[in-house]
Amino acid sequence: MEAPRNRVFGPARIVAVVLISLTTLGLAYLHFSGGDDPVSVPSGAHAGQLTLHACHYATEAGSYPADCGTLVVPESRNKAHSRLIALPNSSRVVLITPSASGLSRITNYLL
Predict the structure, then answer these.
(1) Cβ–Cβ under 8 Å, residues 73 and 88
(2) For 2-61, what is each residue's pLDDT tens digit?
(3) What is the tens place of the pLDDT at every residue in 64-99?
(4) Hey, what long-range contacts does 86-91 have (CB within 8 A, 24 or more apart)?
(5) End-to-end CA distance of the chain
(6) Contacts of 56 (CB under 8 A, 6+ apart)
């Protein structure tokens, strides 16, 4: 009687290796592609600082004038000395309105 052979690369293992490889390649692409305009916190910035400049927002119907910039916020509102991060802001107007229940309602309007 022959001893059972161990399959080193069965179908499940091959699928797992392919999925892990694709995920790793995708994350590496996202990391190294970076984008055209990296967003960083300006030196001397403080939480709540909004820096705007005139720009144009391209759509299928044409280009529209907009205000683009960055909003500096703490990374964690629960930590008093949390590091600051810059959030890109372009072509959208964000309105925060108080509601009757005491919660805020955030609405985005496309220019």
Answers:
(1) no
(2) 666 666 778 888 999 999 999 999 888 877 776 666 677 878 888 888 888 888 877 788
(3) 788 888 888 898 888 878 899 888 876 555 555 555
(4) 86/39, 86/40, 86/41, 86/42, 86/45, 87/39, 88/37, 88/39, 89/50, 89/52, 90/55, 90/57, 90/66, 91/55, 91/57, 91/64, 91/66
(5) 77
(6) 63, 64, 65, 66
Burial (CB count within 10 angstroms: exposed 0-12, middle 13-18, buried 19+), residue 84: middle
70 to each of 33, 62, 95, how far by Cα in Å?
Answer: 21, 24, 16
pLDDT of 28: 86
Residue with tokens 């970076």: 34
Tokens of 105: 């309602």
44/71 Cα distance (integer angstroms): 13
Contact in structure between 47 and 37 (CB atoms under 8 Å): no
